[in-house]
Amino acid sequence: xxxxxxxxxATEHKAFQxxxxxxxxxxxxxxxxxxLIARRIREQHVYxxxxxxxxxxxxxxEIAPKGIILSGGPASIYxxxxxxxxxxxxxxxxxxxxxxxxxxxxxEALGGTVGRAESRExxxxxxxxVSDSSLFSGVPTSTDVWMSxxxxxxxxxxxxxxxxxxxTCPLAAVRHKTLPVFGLQFHxxxxxxxxxxxxxxxxxxxxCGCTGTWxxxxxxxxxxxxxRHQVGSDRVICGLSGGVDSAVVAALISKAIGDKxxxxxxxxxxLRKNEASAVIEEFSDHFKTxxxxxxxx
Length: 297
Fold this sequence. Notes:
9-stranded mixed β-sheet; Rossmann fold; 8 helices; elongated; 28% strand; alpha/beta
């Protein structure tokens, strides 16, 4: 793999080294928390990216992640056309952590059953750790967790060991006996699970072998250098929507090429309150870009 940076390959740049050495992927089953999961992983200084839930095991092997996380989702795994992952990914030897729907998908793929819970859970629940596991290292044996589910794993194959339970969910956490596969019915990525960061950190460090070498500032530095090299002496026009994505892109380009960037903001009357003025202030006063505001109300 070759980078767009002059005189260097991707594997020689420290940002690429960190990404390639410690990459975790989140398979997105439509969860409202998928982005939050990725953010929590990055906060542990491990590079994380979100991919389709139906990505093939072959493609995952090419990406060579240190770990795989199966996100939650709104579907029921027992329904027709429910989203499923490629079952071959469990044979890659890569540690897998299923969260909520992701746990249900993993357990079903490996011989378990999923059914409607007797009572839908949404909110805090007290969770008791019932078996030793590196996943719960340093976590109190009784801790609060955040539940948000109407289905749950009802049975697992003999290859699974229960790790934790709540009053209404006897299989709140499980692990496979021989495969590096773990499941959590609760959501460790939300702040309402106090030990969530520790649990995710245990998965990354103890199971995936991550050491936390990735830094967001390294990634930004690489992006800026890449943009500068790709643009050269040309100019760039960047459209601003008022949202985070286009603002980040514009900020990176501005850092890379300075006054060779022109930004265009179209005020169509549908922007959030004071959003246009905030964009104008940020990109005129702070970044000092060549900003053009077009009123299209």
